[in-house]
Amino acid sequence: MNEFVTLNTGARMPRIGLGTWQSPLSEVKSAVKAAIDAGYRHIDTAYAYGNEAAIGEALQEVFAEGKIRREDLFITTKLWNTFHRPEHVRECLEYSLRQLQLGYVDLYLVHNTVAWKYQPPPSLGRAEDDPVPFQQTWHAMEELVDLGLAKAIGVSNACGAMLWDILAYARIPPAMNQIELHPFCPQPELIQYCLRKGIQVTAYSPLGSHGTRAAAGDATQNVLLEDPVVRAIAAKHHQTPAQVCLRWAYQREGGRLCVIPKSTRPDHIRDNLGMCGWALDEADMRQLDSRPFYRFFDKIEMYGVPLFH
Ligand SMILES: NC(=O)c1ccc[n+]([C@@H]2O[C@H](COP(=O)([O-])OP(=O)(O)OC[C@H]3O[C@@H](n4cnc5c(N)ncnc54)[C@H](OP(=O)(O)O)[C@@H]3O)[C@@H](O)[C@H]2O)c1
């Protein structure tokens, strides 16, 4: 199974990355350093995560220690909803680059395909809706590639209709669609469409965003790592439920997806690399593919409308 996917730009992207959403400022720097020490070469962040500066410090330290060079790492960050107007797209990336202390990112994603009114950095709050045609945003994203500020561009949370639209006018087609993907939300048709169109897929929240719902007071149901089928398959293979979920995503589509579990715990960061060393059998995959559907991020709370159906 490949450790890398090849993007439609020809660049190689490590399939396993460290997620950093909700990684607190006090912990994300050591998490990134622990991940790089453990062998991760791909870090996923976003303007909206508010932790790019601490990640930048971690990167500077590992570069200064001579452990690794910039070109050995694959860094993804994302354009926030308040910067979709074409005149603000470059501003958002340049802000992120200053925080990350980098000259370019390997992949720049539009975080969500809907826009809010502009707010200057580092503002993050909910702003009013802004009717920006996505085509304008996408053409501004393409200019970032021309300028060498982003090696590749893509989208996140894009449904099939949105991708269909982008492909109609893109001079540079999206290299990636980063989507929610775990056994409660397998999305096979969307993945297959993406791959047919040369758009790679990254699985976000591969552990069901463990803890996020509990923190929001919803601990009673839909905890992926406590799902009886996930737990039974874990017991059968002498693995943890987390390993089963990560391996399921890693093994899908003949091993063509990227997976970005978040952790700030050094033991989890190391354990999560273990998704490469063993395999689920076909019966396990079938069972995991057919869990009851549940999307943790329907985005209704953010936008007042489901973005995906
Ligand atoms: N594009 C988007 O809209 C979007 C949306 C959501 C997420 N993402 C990206 O995807 C990444 C991952 O998604 P996520 O953060 O929602 O959730 P996730 O990776 O599914 O789950 C993270 C949670 O699982 C725990 N965990 C990690 N490894 C574990 C293990 N081996 N055993 C048990 N628990 C473990 C973590 O706690 P500890 O830290 O204590 O280990 C954390 O509470 C994000 O960080 C972000 O980079 C993108």
UniProtKB/TrEMBL annotation:
Domain NADP-dependent oxidoreductase: from-to ranges: 15-290
Gene3D superfamilies hit by this protein: NADP-dependent oxidoreductase domain
UniProt xrefs under SUPFAM superfamilies: NAD(P)-linked oxidoreductase
Family annotation (Pfam families): Aldo_ket_red (PF00248)
InterPro entries in the record: AKR, Aldo/ket_reductase_CS, NAD(P)_OxRdtase_dom_sf, NADP_OxRdtase_dom
Name of this chain's protein: Aldose reductase A
Organism: Paratrimastix pyriformis
Taxonomic classification: Eukaryota, Metamonada, Preaxostyla, Paratrimastigidae, Paratrimastix
